[in-house]
């Protein structure tokens, strides 16, 4: 069991936010699986995101990898919250938390979203000891036209992170995480940690509290290209996805994701970053086998997440990763 602020995740294996955690049936199946310790919803915006035929996913032929051109979910946040409430109040499966993935481009919208989530937490009697809902801010979708992932330009995220800090200051039982993009050099990791340090708030006595309880590392690697002959589908179209460029995940991303989890883990354990020591890492990227999950844990992940294998195998993916 892993405790992250007010949520308990057991077993420490989850789905990460993806196109296959998008509707009630999918979320319920994830919730009912004994192999998932929490369920992450697909990233939602306040009003829903327009989806077209160009938003799609292709699986590769020779490895367990994907390229996808999806933006955020077409379903608005309110729809996810209603599904989450339905599942939490009607399922016979042992209680497990939902990680509600959200995306917003301005502070006012984000505040509305967080406050709506908080209203549901109050209704569900979430407590500081045991909560059923956490928030993950997606800072790293590579497929949004004219909106580069803010995780790569960390100072541009500060207005949104300030909203999260203020909402946490009102209620420290709110568990908040950041979904981060794959980084490729050390300064990018330091930019995240330095930016977050400035958002810590005073605790009891001399102590300081960090509003962010976890990082989910990594999202897909954007600006990637695959051709149809590399995919397991019909070879129609010029590229594997109609947009040509998309985000790559699965085996093709694994080494970079491991490197990201390792680097964050090392930096968070460095005494220079003592303020941030409580941040847990959810490791994702190419967790397509039991061995890959073990590598993620060795690299420093407290919890392991999967999207691509889940897309390929359905909820059986978590049984495979657990080694059963
Ligand atoms: C089809 C697809 C859709 C995705 N949608 C989201 C999303 O809505 N929000 C998000 O934070 N990450 C999204 N991701 C990224 C995954 O959560 C995960 O971080 C990434 O795919 C790496 O894990 P994997 O190698 O197990 O797929 C998506 C990934 C895929 C393959």
Structural summary, described in words:
InterPro entries: Aldolase_TIM, DHO_dehydrogenase, Dihydro_DH_chainA_dom2, Dihydroorotate_DH_1_2, Dihydroorotate_DH_cat. This is Dihydroorotate oxidase. Pathway: Pyrimidine metabolism; UMP biosynthesis via de novo pathway. The protein has 324 residues and is an alpha/beta fold. The protein has a single domain (2-322), classed as TIM Barrel, CATH 3.20.20.70. Helix content is 32%, strand content 19%. It contains 9 helices and 16 strands. It has helices at 24-32, 77-90, 107-123, 158-170, 186-197, 254-268, 290-299, 308-313, 316-322; strands at residues 2-4, 7-9, 13-15, 39-40, 57-59, 65-68, 98-102, 133-138, 176-180, 201-202, 208-209, 214-217, 221-225, 245-250, 280-284, 303-306. The strands form 4 sheets. Strands 3-16-15-12-9-8-7-4 form an 8-stranded parallel beta sheet. Strands 5-6-14-13 form a 4-stranded antiparallel beta sheet. A two-stranded antiparallel ribbon has the order 1-2. α1 packs parallel to α2. It is globular, with a radius of gyration of 18 Å. It starts with a strand and ends with a helix. The model has no long low-confidence stretch (mean pLDDT 97). Bound molecules: flavin mononucleotide. The site of flavin mononucleotide has 27 residues, from β6, β14 and α8.
By DSSP, the count of extended strands is 16
Span between termini = 19 Å
Which value, in Å, is the CA radius of gyration?
18 Å
Order of helices and strands: EEEHEEEHEHEHEHEEEEEHEHEHH
CATH superfamily: Aldolase class I
Largest sheet: 8 strands, parallel
What percentage of amino acids are in beta strands? 15-25%
Number of helices: 9
Present as ligands are: flavin mononucleotide
- Oligomer, anyone? single chain
Average residue-wise pLDDT:
97
Q: What gross morphology would you assign?
A: globular
Integer count of domains? 1
CATH domain topology:
TIM Barrel
Class by helix and strand content? Answer: alpha/beta
Poorly predicted regions are: none
Q: Can you tell me the CATH class?
A: Alpha Beta
